[in-house]
Specification:
With 367 residues, the chain is an alpha/beta fold. Helix content is 44%, strand content 17%.
Length: 367
């Protein structure tokens, strides 16, 4: 009798073969990665031929959802992790359970982060105290600001001291609170991913309440340098602003730490992962490639995000190896010191991440 009931119950429950796919998003609905995941899932469903549900798993620094995926969810062949740049930052400088080496990448967008200033604010006027808020993944912006304000010739400790004098680093604000504070002028500096910058900051620019300040550019792993972002006017990339301001290229320990953390954050800002050996990997990659060949789907995504390249399949896995090439012992130590002493944030020195392997993989670009 028990066997009959078990058979009937199992017949009513969907099997893995017929269950919907699930996107795990480590945020609340409405957050940046959640919005991106919704856009992509609607377009990907058309080529995948199956429904995709979104499961939100928010938590401190957006770590909890990724940890849960690593511990349990990744073993479901129809579960996909949607990670973002904050997860990349946490992987480098915080205690986490997840490890990118354990997953296969379906695809990612090679993205950027953009910073804005309130109109009339001169960041180089030493009477001006810049103010902006901390959030998940925002460490590269703090380092970019200090590089630009501090200039060449400073030690890491001098950069830390200069940052604490020139910047009011606000802890504890939510995304909504930060955006409202910038609109009101209570914060004079902000940062957003490209999609959010279009929605949150560009209207203020049009009203002459704010202006574009700088962005990080797009990693070119063939050269190890950052190319200018074609979605914005030339000259706003950090390296370009730095050379225009100081007459030399940025260099030194803080710049190496900045390049490390911004690379892990920006390149992995929007990425799709499954467990290694997932039987649906090829199907998902194929559906994503087909989606990216559909001009209508590409137009929908670019309208929200901008024109940014996708990296798909094994080239995406290789991109993680390119990122590992930025990890050095000195960069990790400088990063931890800046987090603790300049930002008042916890950070963990992880020597196990240091590798002498520095591959120079090429990207396959999908447009």
């Amino acid at each position: 009798m028990n066997k009959i009931w078990l058979f009937l119950i199992s017949a009513l429950l969907p099997s893995a073969a017929f269950a919907d796919y699930t996107f795990i998003v480590p945020q609340q609905p409405g957050a940046g990665t959640a919005q991106w995941a919704t856009i992509v899932k609607l377009e990907l469903e058309k080529t995948l031929g199956e429904k995709i549900n979104i499961k939100y798993l928010p938590g401190a620094h957006d770590i909890a959802g990724f940890n849960k995926f690593h511990a349990h969810e990744r073993f479901d062949p129809k579960t996909v992790m949607v990670s973002h740049g904050g997860n990349g930052v946490s992987f480098i400088q915080e205690k986490v359970e997840y490890d990118y080496a354990d997953y296969d990448c379906i695809g990612l967008q090679n993205l950027n982060i953009v910073m804005g200033l309130r109109e009339g604010v001169d960041p180089f006027d030493k009477r001006t105290r810049l103010s902006f808020a901390s959030e998940s993944g925002v460490v590269p912006e703090a380092m970019a600001v200090e590089l630009l304000l501090g200039g060449p010739g400073l030690t890491s400790q001098q950069h830390i001291e200069n940052f604490t004098k020139r910047v009011n680093w606000v802890l504890g604000m939510s995304t909504a609170e930060r955006r409202l504070a910038f609109r009101r002028g209570e914060l004079n500096t902000t940062r957003e991913n490209p999609a959010a910058f279009k929605k949150q900051v560009e209207p203020l620019i049009a009203e002459r309440q704010a202006r574009l300040w700088m962005h990080h550019g797009i990693l070119n792993p063939a050269t190890g340098r950052y190319d200018d972002d074609p979605n914005y006017p030339p000259g706003y990339q950090l390296e370009a602003l730095y050379k225009k301001t100081w007459g030399v290229e940025p260099a030194g320990d803080l710049y190496d730490a900045y390049k490390l953390i911004k690379s892990w954050r920006d390149v992995l800002q929007k990425a799709l992962w499954v467990n290694k050996g997932n039987p649906n990997t090829d199907k998902l990659r194929g559906a994503l490639r087909t989606m990216l060949q559909n001009p209508a789907s590409v137009a929908v995504i670019e309208k929200e995000v901008g024109k940014y390249d996708w990296i798909v399949g094994e080239q995406c896995n290789k991109q993680v190896q390119v990122l590992r090439g930025f990890i050095t012992d000195a960069a990790l130590k400088t990063l931890v010191a800046f987090n603790k002493e300049a930002l008042g944030m916890s950070a963990v020195y992880k020597p196990q991440l240091v590798s002498s392997d520095r591959p120079a993989n090429q990207l396959v670009r999908h447009r």
